[in-house]
Amino acid sequence: MPIFKSFQFVYFIQSRNINLSCVLNKIVPNNLKGKSKSSQEWLTRQLNDEYVIKSRYHGYRCRSAFKLLEIDKKYKILKPGLSVVDCGAAPGSWTQVVVNKLKLDQEPTDKLQKGIAIAVDLQLIQPIKGAIVLSESNFILPETQEKIKSLLPSGEADVVLSDMAPKATGTHDLDNTAIIHLVYSALKFSIAVLKADGVFLCKVWDGSDVEKFYQTLQSLFTTVKRIKPKASRCNSSEIFLIGIGYKKMNK
Ligand SMILES: C[S@@+](CC[C@H](N)C(=O)[O-])C[C@H]1O[C@@H](n2cnc3c(N)ncnc32)[C@H](O)[C@@H]1O
Q1: What CA–CA distances, in Å, run from 134 to 93, 115, 185, 202?
Q2: What are the phi and psi torsion angles at 178 (to 5°)?
Q3: For the segment 146-157, what is each residue's pLDDT rounded down to a tens digit?
Q4: Where are the extended beta strands (E) located within the chain?
Q5: What are the residue boundaries of the Ribosomal RNA methyltransferase FtsJ domain, all occurrences included (predicted)?
Q6: What are the pLDDT digits (tens) for 21-71?
Q7: Residue 27 carries which DSSP code?
């Protein structure tokens, strides 16, 4: 590429907030013939993605595991003995992380406090050793939430996670409204089940409604943070919001 053109290229990439490492040094798969443009892009992205490679190596069902691992490394939210609800859990990599951090995949010992991990999703979740799985269940339905409550010890949770995401339509406003609807549902559920000092972590797509949701979290939790994990794709608008220290009102 002539030097002038390559400067123009770099300017184009940077002016659109695209990370250069995302577009340079790509390996192109050799089985793209006959595939749609979006399939070709997906295959190329998968082949080049360090977190896809790492998730295969560590046996995680998808790369999302590394987002939760990174958040947990910083905020230490997952510990043995806790009750954790994972909303929007399919295929199951966050639940795999939860089970591992709570040591639910190990034989119980006298020393180990027994926690609980409940995974719920609209889609099928293949069994995860150590977790209770509610597959093909719509989280926003009252009966699903009642079922989760009935499974929680004393109907209470220490941590509620939501990585729920609607099927993207591609229309920014519609998609943002849909994901905000899901996180409000998860938050309302959290208000009902979280113990004092509990933790709420959710994914949103950055947009105009996020600020209001962030402020709502500030009124309910001692500490609220906005997080963009390294494992979150640089060209994705997803961010995570965490509320730590639930200020539980006396009933
Ligand atoms: C990004 S994926 C979650 C990935 C998961 N955290 C993991 O690590 O494997 C988002 C999930 O949200 C689920 N979802 C969307 N709306 C939902 C709802 N109303 N109830 C339950 N799950 C929902 C989708 O079916 C999808 O599996």
Answers
A1: 15, 17, 17, 19
A2: -65, -40
A3: 999 999 999 999
A4: 83-87, 116-120, 132-134, 157-162, 194-205, 221-227, 238-246
A5: 60-245
A6: 444 456 666 776 777 777 777 666 666 688 998 999 999 999 999 999 999
A7: P
Residue 14's pLDDT is what? 44
Whether the CB of 112 sits within 6 Å of ligand 1: no
Taking the alpha carbons at both ends of the chain, their separation in whole angstroms is 67
* Ligand 1: nearest atom to the Cα of 140: 19
The token pair at 132 is: 């209770």
Q: Is 151 in the pocket of ligand 1 (CB under 6 A)?
A: no
240 lines ligand 1 (CB under 6 A): no
Distance of CA 37 to the CA centre of its chain: 27
- The tokens for 159 are 């941590």
**Cβ of residue 123 lying under 6 Å from some atom of ligand 1:** yes
Edge-to-edge strand ranges of the sheet holding 238-246: 132-134, 116-120, 83-87, 157-162, 194-205, 238-246, 221-227
Q: How far is the CA of 88 from the centre of ligand 1 (A)?
A: 3
The single residue of 203, 225, 228, 230 carrying the catalytic annotation is 203
178 Cβ below 6 A of ligand 1: no
Q: How far does the centroid of ligand 1 lie from the alpha carbon of residue 141, in Å?
A: 14
Instruction: Indicate if 203 belongs to the active site.
Output: yes
The CB density around residue 206, as the number of other CB atoms within 10 Å, is 14
